[in-house]
Amino acid sequence: MLAIADFRRGYSGRPVVPLTPENLFFRGLILFLHKTSLLTFCVPGTCYAKKECNADGRWYMLGNQTRKNEWTDYTKCFDKESLLVSIYLGLACNIASIVLLVPAIAIFLVYRSLRRQHRIRLHINFFGALLFADVINILWEMLVSHDQLMSSRNFDLGASCKVLSFLRLYSRSTTYVWMFCEGFYLHRLISNAFKPPKSLLFLYITGWGLPFVYTSIYGLIRIIHDNESCWAKSYGQLQWILYVPNLLCLAINFFFLFNILRILLTQLKSHPNEPSNF
């Protein structure tokens, strides 16, 4: 009965219990014996986490009718300064990325000889996807993450917040898919040098349309089953709707890379006196 032996009362008069496996096992018994609705678990040297017990003897659940989770208050465990530093570092990286991307895109667009080339057009779209993702990330960090960290308002900010969350998920996915489009085009040029693609329409539709499709599916399911907290919290297995296509893009690009290297090495061995052609 280590949990009962370690039981003590905090300054508020409510039970304070060290957070150990034994105490987690006996937490229901402690609540029953002391007839309190609030139990505080103490993590030595770190923080305090609170759980609330309902009148029926069950833990307070947070969520909607279709999906509820046992709620634990970790607000006192947050290191506000560290979170702010991480937000500011993320903003700095996004701003640095924008500073580098804008001149690159401008150069491609200014020179007609460049923007007429298919590979340069793909570069422009890929850079545009990265720029789009950076802008959305900045808006998210400033309007949602930073705002919620500095205020005590409810986290759910309404439809506008969910639209921004959707754009954040969509923009992130476009970077993966456009990376795939770049790899696909290069692989096509190397493997079929005499039959280059005549049109990029398929890649345009794939790069901007495919992420919109599976992000919209995720958004619709989220609206129906868990339309809370700006969609910032993970929805468990549902997240794989976003993860699987993005991971597939990376995996296929690795295949393209290895196959391109294989083709180049094979050609070099076949034409040892003409390395400049490869």
Automatic annotation (TrEMBL):
<keyword id="KW-0807">Transducer</keyword>
<feature type="domain" description="G-protein coupled receptors family 2 profile 2">
    <location>
        <begin position="86"/>
        <end position="278"/>
    </location>
</feature>
<dbReference type="GO" id="GO:0008528">
    <property type="term" value="F:G protein-coupled peptide receptor activity"/>
</dbReference>
<protein>
    <submittedName>
        <fullName>Calcitonin gene-related peptide type 1 receptor-like</fullName>
    </submittedName>
</protein>
<keyword id="KW-0812">Transmembrane</keyword>
<feature type="transmembrane region" description="Helical">
    <location>
        <begin position="122"/>
        <end position="140"/>
    </location>
</feature>
<keyword id="KW-0297">G-protein coupled receptor</keyword>
<feature type="transmembrane region" description="Helical">
    <location>
        <begin position="87"/>
        <end position="110"/>
    </location>
</feature>
<keyword id="KW-0472">Membrane</keyword>
<feature type="transmembrane region" description="Helical">
    <location>
        <begin position="241"/>
        <end position="261"/>
    </location>
</feature>
<dbReference type="Pfam" id="PF00002">
    <property type="entry name" value="7tm_2"/>
</dbReference>
<dbReference type="InterPro" id="IPR000832">
    <property type="entry name" value="GPCR_2_secretin-like"/>
</dbReference>
<dbReference type="InterPro" id="IPR017981">
    <property type="entry name" value="GPCR_2-like_7TM"/>
</dbReference>
<keyword id="KW-1133">Transmembrane helix</keyword>
<dbReference type="InterPro" id="IPR036445">
    <property type="entry name" value="GPCR_2_extracell_dom_sf"/>
</dbReference>
<dbReference type="GO" id="GO:0007188">
    <property type="term" value="P:adenylate cyclase-modulating G protein-coupled receptor signaling pathway"/>
</dbReference>
<dbReference type="GO" id="GO:0007166">
    <property type="term" value="P:cell surface receptor signaling pathway"/>
</dbReference>
<feature type="transmembrane region" description="Helical">
    <location>
        <begin position="201"/>
        <end position="221"/>
    </location>
</feature>
<dbReference type="InterPro" id="IPR050332">
    <property type="entry name" value="GPCR_2"/>
</dbReference>
<dbReference type="GO" id="GO:0005886">
    <property type="term" value="C:plasma membrane"/>
</dbReference>
<keyword id="KW-0675">Receptor</keyword>
